Protein backbone atom coordinates (compact mmCIF):
# COMPACT_ATOMS: atom_id res chain seq x y z
CA UNK A 1 0.00 0.00 0.00
CA UNK A 2 1.20 3.57 -0.61
CA UNK A 3 3.01 5.25 2.28
CA UNK A 4 1.18 7.61 4.63
CA UNK A 5 2.43 11.20 4.73
CA UNK A 6 4.61 11.95 7.81
CA UNK A 7 5.21 15.14 9.77
CA UNK A 8 8.10 17.04 8.18
CA UNK A 9 11.26 17.10 10.35
CA UNK A 10 13.12 20.41 10.92
CA UNK A 11 15.82 21.29 8.41
CA UNK A 12 19.45 21.88 9.25
CA UNK A 13 20.58 25.52 9.29
CA UNK A 14 21.96 26.66 5.95
CA UNK A 15 25.68 26.13 5.43
CA UNK A 16 27.91 29.20 5.29
CA UNK A 17 29.25 28.11 1.89
CA UNK A 18 25.74 27.81 0.42
CA UNK A 19 26.18 24.15 -0.47
CA UNK A 20 23.44 21.65 0.44
CA UNK A 21 23.35 19.74 3.71
CA UNK A 22 23.51 15.94 3.43
CA UNK A 23 21.66 13.17 5.27
CA UNK A 24 22.88 9.61 4.65
CA UNK A 25 20.29 6.85 5.18
CA UNK A 26 21.35 3.23 5.76
CA UNK A 27 18.68 0.52 6.26
CA UNK A 28 19.99 -2.37 8.39
CA UNK A 29 19.04 -5.82 9.57
CA UNK A 30 21.72 -7.88 11.33
CA UNK A 31 24.59 -6.07 9.64
CA UNK A 32 27.18 -6.33 12.43
CA UNK A 33 29.76 -7.80 10.03
CA UNK A 34 29.65 -4.85 7.63
CA UNK A 35 28.18 -1.73 9.28
CA UNK A 36 31.42 -0.72 10.99
CA UNK A 37 33.35 -0.62 7.72
CA UNK A 38 30.49 1.24 6.06
CA UNK A 39 30.35 3.93 8.77
CA UNK A 40 34.13 4.22 9.05
CA UNK A 41 34.33 5.18 5.37
CA UNK A 42 31.92 8.06 6.05
CA UNK A 43 34.33 9.53 8.64
CA UNK A 44 36.84 10.65 5.99
CA UNK A 45 36.86 13.65 3.67
CA UNK A 46 33.88 16.00 3.73
CA UNK A 47 31.47 14.87 6.47
CA UNK A 48 27.71 14.53 6.07
CA UNK A 49 25.57 16.47 8.53
CA UNK A 50 23.91 13.27 9.73
CA UNK A 51 23.95 9.52 9.21
CA UNK A 52 20.66 7.75 9.87
CA UNK A 53 20.94 4.02 10.56
CA UNK A 54 17.49 2.44 10.44
CA UNK A 55 17.41 -0.75 12.48
CA UNK A 56 14.81 -3.15 11.13
CA UNK A 57 14.84 -5.51 14.13
CA UNK A 58 18.47 -6.65 14.39
CA UNK A 59 19.33 -9.20 17.07
CA UNK A 60 23.11 -8.87 16.65
CA UNK A 61 25.46 -5.96 17.48
CA UNK A 62 24.42 -3.73 14.56
CA UNK A 63 23.00 -0.96 16.76
CA UNK A 64 25.83 -1.03 19.31
CA UNK A 65 28.43 -0.73 16.55
CA UNK A 66 26.56 2.09 14.82
CA UNK A 67 26.34 4.12 18.02
CA UNK A 68 30.14 4.18 18.33
CA UNK A 69 30.36 6.61 15.41
CA UNK A 70 29.82 10.39 15.50
CA UNK A 71 26.81 12.01 13.80
CA UNK A 72 25.00 8.66 13.68
CA UNK A 73 21.34 8.58 14.65
CA UNK A 74 19.76 5.13 15.05
CA UNK A 75 16.03 4.85 14.38
CA UNK A 76 14.05 1.67 15.01
CA UNK A 77 11.57 0.46 12.37
CA UNK A 78 9.68 -2.60 13.69
CA UNK A 79 7.79 -3.27 10.44
CA UNK A 80 10.00 -5.80 8.71
CA UNK A 81 11.09 -5.04 5.15
CA UNK A 82 13.65 -2.84 3.44
CA UNK A 83 10.90 -0.66 1.95
CA UNK A 84 9.64 0.23 5.43
CA UNK A 85 13.17 0.82 6.74
CA UNK A 86 14.11 2.99 3.77
CA UNK A 87 10.88 4.99 4.07
CA UNK A 88 11.42 5.67 7.77
CA UNK A 89 14.96 6.89 7.13
CA UNK A 90 13.97 9.15 4.25
CA UNK A 91 11.13 10.68 6.25
CA UNK A 92 13.42 11.39 9.22
CA UNK A 93 16.18 13.03 7.15
CA UNK A 94 16.83 16.72 7.84
CA UNK A 95 19.32 17.42 5.05
CA UNK A 96 18.66 19.22 1.78
CA UNK A 97 19.85 16.05 0.04
CA UNK A 98 18.99 12.49 1.12
CA UNK A 99 21.68 9.98 0.17
CA UNK A 100 21.03 6.24 0.34
CA UNK A 101 23.59 3.46 0.67
CA UNK A 102 23.46 -0.13 1.90
CA UNK A 103 25.05 -1.35 5.13
CA UNK A 104 27.79 -3.08 3.13
CA UNK A 105 28.49 -0.12 0.84
CA UNK A 106 31.88 1.57 1.29
CA UNK A 107 32.02 5.12 -0.04
CA UNK A 108 35.09 6.69 -1.57
CA UNK A 109 36.63 9.52 0.48
CA UNK A 110 35.37 12.19 -1.94
CA UNK A 111 31.79 10.87 -1.95
CA UNK A 112 30.10 13.54 0.21
CA UNK A 113 32.03 16.36 -1.48
CA UNK A 114 30.93 15.11 -4.90
CA UNK A 115 27.35 14.95 -3.68
CA UNK A 116 27.47 18.57 -2.58
CA UNK A 117 28.97 19.60 -5.91
CA UNK A 118 26.35 17.71 -7.93
CA UNK A 119 23.45 19.33 -6.09
CA UNK A 120 24.97 22.77 -5.45
CA UNK A 121 25.20 24.07 -9.01
CA UNK A 122 21.74 25.60 -9.04
CA UNK A 123 20.91 25.96 -5.37
CA UNK A 124 19.20 23.79 -2.76
CA UNK A 125 15.81 23.65 -4.51
CA UNK A 126 17.05 24.07 -8.04
CA UNK A 127 14.76 24.98 -10.91
CA UNK A 128 17.26 24.11 -13.61
CA UNK A 129 19.54 21.59 -11.90
CA UNK A 130 19.53 17.89 -11.09
CA UNK A 131 17.02 16.46 -8.61
CA UNK A 132 18.44 12.96 -8.15
CA UNK A 133 21.58 11.01 -9.00
CA UNK A 134 22.59 7.38 -9.22
CA UNK A 135 26.29 6.76 -8.66
CA UNK A 136 28.90 4.32 -9.85
CA UNK A 137 30.05 1.11 -8.18
CA UNK A 138 33.10 -1.08 -7.86
CA UNK A 139 32.85 -4.75 -6.93
CA UNK A 140 33.43 -4.85 -3.18
CA UNK A 141 34.32 -8.53 -3.17
CA UNK A 142 37.25 -7.86 -5.53
CA UNK A 143 38.40 -4.39 -4.40
CA UNK A 144 40.87 -4.62 -1.48
CA UNK A 145 41.87 -1.72 0.72
CA UNK A 146 41.37 1.64 -0.97
CA UNK A 147 40.94 0.13 -4.41
CA UNK A 148 37.72 0.59 -6.41
CA UNK A 149 38.03 -2.01 -9.16
CA UNK A 150 35.88 -3.58 -11.87
CA UNK A 151 33.54 -0.65 -12.39
CA UNK A 152 33.09 -1.94 -15.95
CA UNK A 153 31.13 -4.94 -14.63
CA UNK A 154 28.62 -2.66 -12.91
CA UNK A 155 28.35 -0.48 -16.03
CA UNK A 156 27.54 -3.62 -18.04
CA UNK A 157 24.87 -4.70 -15.53
CA UNK A 158 23.41 -1.21 -15.35
CA UNK A 159 23.07 -0.99 -19.13
CA UNK A 160 21.47 -4.45 -19.33
CA UNK A 161 18.99 -3.77 -16.55
CA UNK A 162 17.92 -0.36 -17.85
CA UNK A 163 17.31 -1.77 -21.31
CA UNK A 164 15.34 -4.68 -19.88
CA UNK A 165 12.96 -2.60 -17.76
CA UNK A 166 12.87 0.53 -19.95
CA UNK A 167 13.68 2.85 -17.04
CA UNK A 168 16.67 5.17 -16.96
CA UNK A 169 18.69 6.45 -15.28
CA UNK A 170 18.24 3.96 -12.45
CA UNK A 171 18.86 4.93 -8.83
CA UNK A 172 20.13 1.82 -7.06
CA UNK A 173 19.85 1.60 -3.29
CA UNK A 174 23.54 0.98 -2.69
CA UNK A 175 24.48 4.44 -4.08
CA UNK A 176 21.93 7.13 -4.89
CA UNK A 177 20.71 10.52 -3.68
CA UNK A 178 17.94 13.03 -4.27
CA UNK A 179 16.74 16.37 -3.00
CA UNK A 180 14.53 16.09 0.05
CA UNK A 181 11.86 18.20 -1.64
CA UNK A 182 11.89 15.83 -4.61
CA UNK A 183 11.25 12.92 -2.23
CA UNK A 184 8.37 14.77 -0.59
CA UNK A 185 6.73 15.32 -3.98
CA UNK A 186 7.21 11.73 -5.16
CA UNK A 187 6.61 9.91 -1.88
CA UNK A 188 2.89 9.31 -2.38
CA UNK A 189 3.65 7.08 -5.37
CA UNK A 190 5.95 4.60 -3.59
CA UNK A 191 4.84 1.18 -2.33
CA UNK A 192 5.84 -0.40 0.99
CA UNK A 193 5.31 -4.11 0.24
CA UNK A 194 8.66 -5.77 -0.57
CA UNK A 195 6.84 -8.73 -2.12
CA UNK A 196 5.13 -6.53 -4.71
CA UNK A 197 7.86 -4.09 -5.80
CA UNK A 198 11.56 -3.71 -6.46
CA UNK A 199 12.06 -0.83 -4.07
CA UNK A 200 14.81 1.01 -5.97
CA UNK A 201 12.92 0.71 -9.27
CA UNK A 202 9.80 1.95 -7.47
CA UNK A 203 11.55 5.08 -6.14
CA UNK A 204 13.18 5.79 -9.50
CA UNK A 205 9.86 5.63 -11.36
CA UNK A 206 8.11 7.72 -8.69
CA UNK A 207 10.69 10.48 -9.16
CA UNK A 208 10.44 10.29 -12.96
CA UNK A 209 6.63 10.33 -12.91
CA UNK A 210 6.62 13.49 -10.79
CA UNK A 211 8.75 15.32 -13.34
CA UNK A 212 12.12 15.28 -11.62
CA UNK A 213 15.47 15.36 -13.38
CA UNK A 214 17.59 12.26 -12.77
CA UNK A 215 21.24 11.83 -13.73
CA UNK A 216 23.81 9.06 -13.72
CA UNK A 217 26.96 10.21 -11.90
CA UNK A 218 29.62 7.53 -12.49
CA UNK A 219 32.32 9.32 -10.47
CA UNK A 220 30.17 9.19 -7.32
CA UNK A 221 31.76 5.91 -6.25
CA UNK A 222 31.12 3.20 -3.70
CA UNK A 223 32.18 -0.39 -3.32
CA UNK A 224 29.14 -2.65 -3.32
CA UNK A 225 28.79 -6.41 -2.87
CA UNK A 226 27.38 -6.92 -6.34
CA UNK A 227 28.04 -10.66 -6.58
CA UNK A 228 25.57 -11.46 -3.81
CA UNK A 229 22.75 -10.98 -6.34
CA UNK A 230 24.10 -13.51 -8.82
CA UNK A 231 21.89 -16.33 -7.62
CA UNK A 232 19.10 -17.95 -9.65
CA UNK A 233 16.53 -17.70 -6.86
CA UNK A 234 17.30 -14.04 -6.16
CA UNK A 235 17.37 -13.15 -9.84
CA UNK A 236 14.00 -14.81 -10.42
CA UNK A 237 12.54 -12.85 -7.50
CA UNK A 238 14.02 -9.55 -8.74
CA UNK A 239 12.74 -10.22 -12.25
CA UNK A 240 9.25 -10.84 -10.87
CA UNK A 241 9.19 -7.75 -8.62
CA UNK A 242 10.66 -5.57 -11.40
CA UNK A 243 7.76 -6.63 -13.63
CA UNK A 244 5.21 -6.02 -10.87
CA UNK A 245 6.70 -2.57 -10.25
CA UNK A 246 6.54 -1.60 -13.92
CA UNK A 247 2.95 -2.85 -14.13
CA UNK A 248 1.92 -0.98 -11.01
CA UNK A 249 3.17 2.31 -12.44
CA UNK A 250 2.24 1.59 -16.07
CA UNK A 251 5.76 2.68 -16.88
CA UNK A 252 8.84 1.42 -18.67
CA UNK A 253 9.04 -1.55 -21.01
CA UNK A 254 5.43 -2.75 -21.64
CA UNK A 255 6.72 -6.21 -22.63
CA UNK A 256 7.76 -6.63 -19.00
CA UNK A 257 4.34 -5.73 -17.59
CA UNK A 258 2.50 -8.58 -15.90
CA UNK A 259 0.16 -10.16 -18.44
CA UNK A 260 2.19 -9.03 -21.45
CA UNK A 261 3.06 -11.67 -24.10
CA UNK A 262 6.25 -13.57 -23.33
CA UNK A 263 9.37 -12.25 -25.08
CA UNK A 264 11.78 -15.06 -24.38
CA UNK A 265 13.84 -12.89 -22.05
CA UNK A 266 14.76 -14.68 -18.83
CA UNK A 267 16.23 -13.46 -15.59
CA UNK A 268 18.82 -16.23 -15.62
CA UNK A 269 20.67 -14.41 -18.38
CA UNK A 270 22.49 -12.66 -15.54
CA UNK A 271 23.69 -15.87 -13.96
CA UNK A 272 26.70 -15.99 -16.29
CA UNK A 273 27.82 -12.35 -16.66
CA UNK A 274 31.22 -11.45 -18.07
CA UNK A 275 33.69 -12.71 -15.49
CA UNK A 276 35.91 -10.05 -13.89
CA UNK A 277 39.55 -10.48 -14.79
CA UNK A 278 42.14 -11.51 -12.27
CA UNK A 279 44.09 -8.81 -10.49
CA UNK A 280 47.10 -10.45 -12.13
CA UNK A 281 46.17 -8.51 -15.28
CA UNK A 282 47.02 -4.94 -14.10
CA UNK A 283 46.32 -3.26 -17.44
CA UNK A 284 42.77 -4.62 -17.57
CA UNK A 285 42.26 -3.74 -13.91
CA UNK A 286 43.27 -0.14 -14.52
CA UNK A 287 40.85 0.09 -17.42
CA UNK A 288 38.10 -1.35 -15.22
CA UNK A 289 38.38 1.22 -12.43
CA UNK A 290 35.87 4.05 -12.36
Automatic annotation (TrEMBL):
Feature: compositional bias, Basic and acidic residues: 281-290
Chain ranges of the Glycosyltransferase 2-like domain: 23-182
GO molecular function: glycosyltransferase activity
Keywords of this entry: Glycosyltransferase, Transferase
Gene3D superfamilies reported for this sequence: Spore Coat Polysaccharide Biosynthesis Protein SpsA, Chain A
InterPro entries according to UniProt: Glyco_trans_2-like, Nucleotide-diphossugar_trans
Entry's family note: Belongs to the glycosyltransferase 2 family.
PANTHER family referenced in this protein's UniProt entry, alphabetically: POLY-BETA-1,6-N-ACETYL-D-GLUCOSAMINE SYNTHASE
Protein name: Glycosyltransferase family 2 protein
Source organism of this protein record: Labedella phragmitis
Amino acid sequence: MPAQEPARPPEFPARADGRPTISVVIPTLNEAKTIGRCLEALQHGDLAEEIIVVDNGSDDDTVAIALRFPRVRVIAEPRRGISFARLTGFDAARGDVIARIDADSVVRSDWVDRLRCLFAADGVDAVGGVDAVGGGAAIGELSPGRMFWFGWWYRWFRGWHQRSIGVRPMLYGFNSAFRRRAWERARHLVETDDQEVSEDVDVTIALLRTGHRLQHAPTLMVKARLFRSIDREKLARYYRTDSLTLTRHGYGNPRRWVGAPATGEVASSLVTPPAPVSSADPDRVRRGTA
